[in-house]
Design a protein that fits this description.
Aspartate Aminotransferase, domain 2; seven-stranded mixed β-sheet; three-stranded antiparallel β-sheet; 355 residues; Aspartate Aminotransferase, domain 1; binds pyridoxal-5'-phosphate; 17% strand
Length: 355
């Protein structure tokens, strides 16, 4: 048995894998992969997949849910283009690689970006606090969970400026108050479903108000909303499987229950990192992510022995992102706590033999 701690694409519930596989063979007499996205059967899937997002997160009236493509990487540009207003100024919080990419893409389309808070001074190992948000901004953007560094905002940014968030790696892991946001986007491939779809939750009143002179149809959220996410061929398999996964999430207590399970996994993992003398965590304790726990071996500890031991235990995907090294245990919704116990046991055993 494998214990998949991969950062995304990542583990989904086994039952969802099974149901998705069955639909590839038989979806109302056809393969899901050959069915027309315009068919009644698929339109129903799209409708349910969007409704379940609203149900799972308690999305209030006045918001539209869209499934697009291009990943969160195209989301960076979509967000900047659709939120651009007269000032063409936006505030960004830089918490690492993905936030930096969001900044770069906004600048690429002519946004005057003010990075009013950053954790770059300490290698992105903390979440900036006590910052002042400048005035005169079209919008403020932040990344709720920093997949690479293992930091996570524990609170929503408090502002009256329109708020945009890249929630790729913690959406559906806990309850969120969607009414605080004007635009949320997330690549599907963590807690939602397979890679291929990008989830967008957008406040209706912000659509169609961009002042950008450049607006390709595919990047215009208003056009997608008018076509019910069917302006062009949607990523059928990713959306169908996301629908199955959302059904599974809701049947298992929704985001409230997921948050409790994720907290338990996080506590188990971090208590091992803190108490094991051969390991340490680089992230400020109150900013730690329950989705991605980053940790390092202390100097002199034999990494080749540790690596051999976790591989032997069936663990995969715990090498840190290539840009930061070390280790990263990604513990998305579908990762059972039993897998975290296996990793913790390996860390203990390693220290017993090598400490
Ligand atoms: C927080 C965050 N934002 C953006 C991205 C980029 O997403 P995509 O590969 O869907 O473009 C990732 C990928 O892991 C991420 O974790």
């Amino acid at each position: 048995m494998k214990h998949n701690f991969g950062a995304g694409p990542c583990i989904l519930p086994q039952e969802v894998f099974k149901q998705a596989a069955e639909a590839v063979i038989d979806f109302n007499g056809l393969s899901l992969l050959e069915v027309s996205h315009r068919s009644g059967d698929f339109v129903q899937v799209m409708d349910e997949a969007r409704d379940l997002v609203k149900k799972a997160l308690g999305v209030p009236a006045g918001y539209t849910v869209l499934y697009l493509q291009g990943g969160a990487s195209l989301g960076f540009t979509i967000a900047a283009l659709n939120m651009m207003r007269d000032s063409k100024k936006a505030g960004y919080i830089n918490t690492g690689t993905w936030a930096s990419s969001a900044i770069k893409e906004a600048e690429n389309i002519g946004v005057d970006v003010n990075v009013f808070a950053s954790s770059e001074d300490k290698g992105f190992t903390y979440i900036p606090k006590n910052f002042e948000i400048p005035t005169g901004l079209d919008y403020v953007h932040y990344t709720s969970n920093n997949t690479i560094y293992g930091t996570q905002f524990q609170r929503i940014i408090d502002t009256t400026v329109p708020l945009v968030c890249d929630m790729s790696s913690d959406i559906f892991s806990k309850p969120i108050d969607v009414s605080k946001f004007d635009l949320i986007y997330a690549g599907a491939q963590k807690n939602l479903g397979p890679a291929g779809a990008t989830l967008i939750i957008v406040k209706d009143e912000i659509m169609g108000k961009s002042t950008s002179p450049f607006m390709p149809s595919y990047l215009d959220l208003k056009k997608h909303a008018e076509k019910d996410s069917m302006m062009n061929t949607p990523p059928v398999f990713s959306i169908y499987t996301s629908m199955l996964n959302l059904r599974h999430l809701i049947a298992n207590g929704g985001v409230d229950a997921a948050a409790i399970r994720n907290e338990a996994k996080g506590n188990l993992m971090y208590s091992e990192i803190d108490n094991n003398p051969l390991f340490f965590g680089p992230v400020t304790i109150e900013d730690r992510s329950n989705m991605n726990a980053t940790f390092l071996l202390k100097e002199g500890a034999p990494s080749e022995i540790f690596d051999a031991m976790w591989k032997e235990a069936g663990i995969i995907g715990i090498k840190g992102h290539r840009s930061v090294g070390g280790y990263r245990a990604s513990m998305y919704n579908a990762l059972p706590i039993e897998s975290v116990k296996v990793l913790v046991d390996v860390m203990n055993e390693f220290t017993r033999k090598n400490g």
